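Narrative summary of target 7.
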Amino acid sequence: MRLGRAQGAGDGSFGRALSSTLVADLDKRRSYTPRRVRERRAYQLAVTGGVAGAIGVIGAVLALAGVIGAGLPIVALVIAGVCAFLFRRAVVG
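Modeled conformation, tokenized:
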């Protein structure tokens, strides 16, 4: 197919034909995840984030008291933050 001046002659018909063929191939969602899978993922993120947050806070208090080191609470709080971010992304987006 030749894309010269002879076809369309600047009236925009080529652009309309091109856009209609591109739009016809669009999917509503490229990778559809069922609702139950998304719900389960959000629930698991909420539980994991809550447990990690509790371990982080309790561990931070114990670390300030000198009972344990600060490494575990820091890691737990980072995990809780990542879970919160992913939960928010799963629920909103």
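Residues 33-92 form one domain.
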